[in-house]
Amino acid sequence: MILVKNLEKYFGSHHALKNINFKINRGDKIAIIGPSGAGKSTLLRCLNLLETPDSGYIFFNNMEITSYKKNINRVRQKMNMVFQYFNLFENKTVLENITLAPIKLKKISKEKAVNKAIDLLDRVGLLNKKNCFPKELSGGQKQRVAILRAMAMDPQVILFDEPTSSLDPEMVGEVLNVMQQLAQSGITMICVTHEINFAKNMANRIIFMCEGTILKDATPEEVFNNPSSERLENFLNSYKSK
Ligand code: ADP
Known about the structure:
Number of strands: 10
CATH superfamily: P-loop containing nucleotide triphosphate hydrolases
Order of helices and strands: EEEHEEHEHHHEHEHEEHH
Number of domains: 1
Helix content: 25-40%
Number of helices: 9
Structural class: alpha/beta
Low-confidence stretches: none
CATH topology: Rossmann fold
Largest sheet: 6 strands, mixed
Shape: globular
Bound molecules: adenosine-5'-diphosphate
Oligomer: single chain
CATH class: Alpha Beta
């Protein structure tokens, strides 16, 4: 479904992504882990061209999207993103946040979009918040709404950029629960995360990044039982001691 070949990205003289290569199959749940500054978010943002790679190729459904600039919005509709800081529209209600893109971009009727949003909100226990504005919600509730907003577009892939790292610890669980629910629906998910246990449970593959390269791309079993790199081992050990 997604093929990344020889991807390179520089920020000035900083070589943020170095010859990145990997494949993602339909239905994959990928966790991208690694130390801060490893290039995880940059890689995720390159996938839907929020960052422009300097060289290399990204294919999505056999189409090379790195040379497909004009229709990037169509790519983003199919490859939706959930951000660390939610990025909800503050002047719109929860319901409006969820229905805006399906109505405007996918030309779905308002009635259909609202019905779908209500169904999604109900599934995660947030129906009573449908007329609230984001400022009236907790961080965990905002992030759950942001996830529903992505789901409302029926994307093929959802990219998650550290979706729980701006949350108070007591709110992390409620967001991970919704993501776990989503994972079971069969959708393709790619998630940059510091929640190592979540990565272990949710992902069928873990990509470990360090200093702009992929040091390991393997199943959770392989990553945890046979890290085969000192850096990965040290990284995993740093979580054990927390
Ligand atoms: P991670 O997600 O693994 O913490 P990032 O992808 O955010 O890492 O960043 C990788 C490196 O690129 C870091 O050194 C970061 O400072 C740098 N970087 C990221 N975005 C920018 C940017 N827009 N401008 C300059 N440097 C950036």
